[in-house]
Amino acid sequence: MKALLHICCSICALGAYRRLRDEGWQVRGHFFNPNIHPLIEFRRRKKSVQVLQERISLPVEYEEDYGLWDFLRELQHQDQPERCLECYRLRLEHTARRAAELDADVFTTTLLTSKRQDVSALKRIGEECGRQHGVDFLFRDWKGLSEDNRDEAKKMGLYRQQYCGCIFSEEERYRNTTRHLYRGPGPASGDRRWSDADD
């Protein structure tokens, strides 16, 4: 039985892959995330999936193109929850189409492992995309699974992102923080420092 696993990031993929493997699925990963911005963040997350791929021998195919302009063209809303639903559909529709091309039995997504995602919406949209392309969406309530794997992911040296992915979620994450703000010369030494405080 073949399952195509949409991968949003390495930490989420770690637990989802193992659950699928334990169920007897032959798993192939699919990294397609035109929502991840800016470019440096996209490269970090892709590299981290490549590190995981080497550690657990998970075959993964990558959509290499940075998708900023495609993402913005597809997005009709800038506010949640509509923005997130459009983002789910963009990635799940692409994964469903690819699953059909590969003759996979099912497709699913690592987004189901996060407490921050709307799993009921993912289920509905996944099933709609599956019907459109003639392949079943495998729904599992893995909510919280990514958090359960954080210690192991840290030992593997996997990158841990600080926000969901898009430029809007980045702004929401850092809006009320002083993280990464330039603080200017120090009061005594005159050295220049950057703030790494979270709040």
Binned, the helix content reads 40-55%
Spatial gap, N to C terminus? 47 Å
- Give the radius of gyration: 18 Å
CATH class term = Alpha Beta
Q: Please tell me what the overall shape is.
A: globular
Strand order of the largest sheet: 3-2-1-4-5
Q: How many strands in all? A: 7
Question: Average pLDDT value?
Answer: 90
Could you name the CATH homologous superfamily? HUPs
Number of domains: 1
Major beta sheet, specifics? Answer: 5 strands, parallel
Q: How are the SSEs placed, and which strands pair?
A:
Layout: E1 2-7, H1 10-22, E2 26-31, H2 39-56, E3 60-62, H3 68-74, H4 82-101, E4 106-109, H5 119-133, E5 136-137, H6 145-148, H7 150-156, H8 167-174, E6 182-185, E7 192-194
Could you give a short description of this structure?
The chain is α/β, with parallel strands linked by helices and 199 residues long. The protein contains 8 helices and 7 strands, in the order E-H-E-H-E-H-H-E-H-E-H-H-H-E-E.
